[in-house]
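Q: My labmate handed me this sequence with no annotations at all. I'd like to see what the chain might look like in three dimensions before we decide whether it's worth expressing. Could you predict it?
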Amino acid sequence: MKAAVVRVATATLALPVALVGLHTVVRIVRHFVKFPVPEVLADLIDNPLRRRVQPPGLLAERHGVRAGMTVLDVGPGNGRYTLAAARAVGPSGRVHAIDLEPRMIERVRQRAASEGVTNIEGRVADVYALPYPDDFFDVVYLITVTGEIPEPVRMLRECRRVLKPTGTLGISELLADPDYPLRRTVTSWATAAGFRPSGRYGTFFSYTLRFRP
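A: Here is what I predict for the chain of 213 residues:
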């Protein structure tokens, strides 16, 4: 009986240690090799725990999304947060979602169609050359995406180009993400791209930063 208890205790302790170890290895690899999250992982990263820590409706609010706005979602994953933004802008607003991976955009389109959301436009696009005119968006936001970009300052400069002078850039990050950057790192990237801080929400483990051009 005692040996069985020891085995159970050892297994219980080993799991979190193994997960931390795996997370560390992935972070090291991702530090040197930047690439978008594969489409097959879209549902894995959209899980109940994440939605509890980063509620879709709350993030839309923190990013400054309001009724009637034109919004850009960079790297929408399977579209859950895109739909939350679409509901926040309402029928008079529109949300554009871009990703390099065509299958990600197809997921967003299918999800919007299945839930009857009609104010979302999904496009395959390069973050360094956004297919939109200058001063087009009221809000541009990225959720656990910035750390994936090989040249974040270059990407953010392009976001600034398509953002209205009165617009808002929102960046949300989660510690569990292997590409998680510190708040000061994101702030330095945004500042170098021509933004100034305008708001901060959350904690070290899950935060949102807002910037103005």
